[in-house]
Amino acid sequence: MSNYKTVFFTLGILQIILGIFMLIPVLAQFFYNEIDSSFFGASIVTVIFGILFFLSNLDHDKKLNLQQAFLLTALSWLSIAIFGALPFVFSSVEFSFTNAFFESMSGITTTGSTIISNLEDIPKGILLWRAILQWLGGIGIIVMAITLMPIMNVGGMQLFKVSNNDSSEKILPKSKEIALRLIYIYSGLTALCALSYKVLGMNVFDSLTHSMTTIATGGFSNYNESIGFFNSASIEISAMVFIILGSLPFIAYIKFLNGNKRIFFSDIQIKTFLKIIFLSIIILSMYLVINETAQFNLRSIFFNVISILTGTGYVNAQFDDWGGFPIILFLGLMFIGGCAGSTTCGVKIFRVQILYSFVINQIKKIIYPKGIFVLKYNQNPVDNKFISSIISFIYLYLVIFFVISALLSLTGLDFITSISGAATSISNVGPGLGSIIGPNGNFSTLPDISKWILSLGMIMGRLELFAILVLFLPSFWKN
C-alpha cells in the first residue's frame, strides 16, 4: 500500500483532530457534574490510531492523485463515523453499536436523523458531541466540495474548479490555503449564530449546540420538539437566516471578501435557490388556505420549507398533518437541496438549473430543427461532457433512491416510512414522514438492518454517489 501513504497520513491527521475534539464534551461533563470516562477513553483510542497512521506514513511525497482522492474521500467519512461512535458506545446511555454508528453517521453527514427518543434526558456531553459531529461534517463537506470534488469530476462538479490549470497532484497545497479561509468564515458564522440565539433567549449551552447544527444545516437539537420547543418567532427567524447563510456556496464568501461585493446578487445558484424558497412558500400557502387546513401558520410554512429544502431538518410543526400535497412537495424539496459548495446536500441547485436548460434546448431543437442552441451556465458554455455527467448523476440518484426504498420495504417498514426514509437518508435531511420517523418521531424503533441501510444511504448521498460507487469498480484499482 505504499502508493497510498498520503491517504493514510491524512486519515491519521483527521483521527488526531477528531480525538482532540472529543475532549471538548469533557468540559460540559465537569460543568454539569456528569463526569465519566466515555469521552476521555474514546479520545485516547482515536488519537492512538491517528498517531499510528500518521507516523507509519511520514515518509512520502505528500502528493495525491485522482485515484487516491476518491479513496481518501470515502475513508475519511467512514473512519470518522466509526470512531465518532465510540463516545456513544462508552457512555452511560445504553447505545448498541448499530445505534451508535447510526447516530455518528447521521451527525458527520449532517443528516440529523436520530435514534434517541428522550433527548431531554440525555447527558449534556452526548448532546454537545452530536452537535460537534455535525459542525465538523459541515466544514468537511464544504472543503471537499470546493477542493476535491471539482478535480474528481463528480456529477458536474468540475464546473466549480477554482483554477482550470490545477492538476490532481496540486490538490493538497491548494486545499490547505482555501480550507483555512473557509474555516475562518465558517467559524465566524457559527459564532454570530450562537450570539443571536443567546440574545434571543436560549441558554448558553443550547445556543452553542444549536448554532453548530444550524450553520452545518444538520438539524440535531437538544429537544424532541426540535426548534419548536422554544416556541419563539425570533429564534426561528434567526435560525432561518443562518440556515440560508449555511446553504449558500462558501466560495461566494471568499469572493466577497476578495472584493466582489455583488457576488450574492449576481450568482445564478443563489438567485435560483431563493426563488425556489419563495415559490414553494407561495404554493404551499395557497394550498393550505384553499383546503382550509387549520394546523398551520405562515411562520411554520416559511420555517419548514427552508429547513426541508436545505436538508437541515429542524421542525416547528407536524407538517405531515397538512395533507397529501405538502408531503409530495417536501419530498421534492428534499431531492433538490441547496447550492454546490455549501453544507447542504441533495441533487443541488446547479444540476437542476442545467437539466432545465438542457430540456428547454431539446424542445427548441424539435421546434427549430436547423437552429443552433448553445447551452450556457452562468454565461459560460457547457459542453456535452458536463451535461452527460449531470444527467447520469441525477439518474443514478433516483435509481439509488428506489433501491434504498425497496430494501427498507423488505425489512418490514411501511410504504411512507420506506419512501421518506430513503429520501431523507440520501438527501441528508433528517426527519422523514409518517408516525414513526415523522417530524417529531425518531428512528429508534427501526430494525437494525434498516439503520445500516439508511447509514449507507447517508454516506452515499453526502459524498455525491460516484465517490463511493467508483471504489467498487475493478478498473478503478488498475494502474
Main sheet overview? 2 strands, antiparallel
List the uncertain runs: 163-173
Structural class: mainly alpha
**What would you report as the Rg, rounded to the nearest angstrom?**
22 Å
Silhouette: globular
Provide a short characterization of the protein structure.
By secondary structure, this protein is mainly alpha-helical. The chain is built from 21 helices and two strands.
List the helices and strands and how they pair.
Elements: H1 5-21, H2 24-31, H3 38-55, H4 66-84, H5 86-90, H6 97-108, H7 124-152, H8 171-199, H9 204-215, H10 233-247, H11 250-257, H12 263-266, H13 268-290, H14 298-309, H15 324-336, H16 349-367, E1 376-377, E2 380-381, H17 384-410, H18 415-426, H19 434-437, H20 448-462, H21 466-469
Antiparallel strand pairs: 1-2
Overview of the structural elements:
The protein is an all-alpha fold. Helices cover 64% and strands 1% of the residues. The protein is built from 21 helices and two strands. α7 (124-152) packs parallel to α9 and α8 (171-199) crosses α11 (250-257). The two termini are 13 Å apart. Residues 163-173 have low confidence and may be disordered.
